[in-house]
Amino acid sequence: MSVQSSKRRLALVAVATMACSGLVACSDAGTDASSPSAGVEVGGQRGARDASAPGASGPVVSTTPRRAARDVPVSTLVRVRAAGGTLASVTVRSASAQVAGSMSEDRFAWTAAERLEPGTDYTIVTVVEDADAGERTRRTSRFTTQDLTLDEQTYASVAPLQGETVGVGMPVVVSFDLAVRNRAEFEKSMSVTSVPEQVGSWHWLSDNEAHWRPKKYWQAGSEVTVDVDINGVDAGRGIYGQESRSVDFTVGGRNIYRVDARTHQMKVFSNGDLLRTIPITTGKAGFTTRSGTKVIMEKHDSKRMNSETVGISGSEAYDIDNVQYAMRLTYSGEFIHAAPWSVGSQGSANVSHGCTGLSTDQARWLYSLSKRGDVVEYTGTDRPMTFTNGFGDWNKSFSDYAAGSAL
Fold first, then answer.
1. DSSP SS3 for 185
2. What is the sign, positive or negative, of the torsion defined by CA atoms of 190, 192, 198, 200?
3. Cβ contact 251:166 at 8 Å
4. Which of 197, 211, 251, 299 could be bridged to 171 by S-S, CB 3.0 to 4.6 A?
5. How much is the pTM?
6. Which residues are catalytic?
7. Neighbour-count burial of 105, counting CB atoms closer than 10 A to its CB (0-12 exposed, 13-18 middle, 19+ buried)
8. Mean pLDDT across the stretch 86-109?
9. H or E segment and range at residue 205
10. CA dist 405 to 158, 183, 195, 212, 386, Å?
11. 330-365 pLDDT, tens per residue?
């Protein structure tokens, strides 16, 4: 994790209009006597008197958190409410940043649009206008948030990467380094939007990983934004979201490769056009290649392949140092790659340990065409692709996939 301390960077959050009802819970109308003296100019307007001084009267300001509160949860959204006057301005800030927020239409209430940082002192400065008296009143309160260690904060990693161009089968993958028990609260704060707009859903694979995919393969050329606005969100069991993340990526051309293990052929389609039919070999008896929809997860122009890493030993063991043009399809070790040693069987027999082997020339050509997220659809075997063995998101119907949402 690339975080140097328990402090997290503030994430900018869009301001939303908030209703004024229900904003007084856990509030305190008290003020801070250390505020500036009366007669200060506030917001460029003269005549605001300091109601934080002892004995001051006038409009009542209620705040959440209350004045001088300590160990305030970082999941708190600051709220301010005025009675006997309207809010002219509200400023909530720490020594390093100001907290964004929105005013209700009637100007009786203000609500923060972002949560808080751990171990931080905050000041709330409110200017209230009393229309009948024709004057403005300034009130100040302060509070301190709870401090958190890294073991009390969960950090989100996001794929695809910022600016990446991916294939039409690429899911959005959000991984958390600490378990999220309050999945619904986190999912409410995570969104995927695209141009053009496409229907999709989150699916939680575990408390540490959530995926999002559209109902159908992405439309080629889509521009996608992922917002994981989990900074300060309560993950449960004393854990909070550590940092909000925002990632923009692009969906490239529609590459779909169709592999038939019975005919030993791969048909390569790009944007609907059949570019090539390539002779291939897949897994032999005992090492059958899985049928189903797979997605290219990573690419290596050269990779060492050692069978011991996937549990193959004895007479079937292998250790090949320079396997060229390797593209991973499953966590369990299925790749598409150059296999010059099996050219004589490519197009006629299945002789591999589960990978899809091509000639070096064909593998080089396919590798140069491919990108992470391209789709490889396998048929012809009785061994099914499993949902969690790689980016297996397309091996469920959309209704079953959406059932994995926490909302």
1. helix
2. negative
3. yes
4. 211
5. 0.83
6. 337, 355
7. exposed
8. 97
9. strand 200-206
10. 18, 9, 23, 9, 19
11. 999 999 999 999 999 999 999 999 999 999 999 999
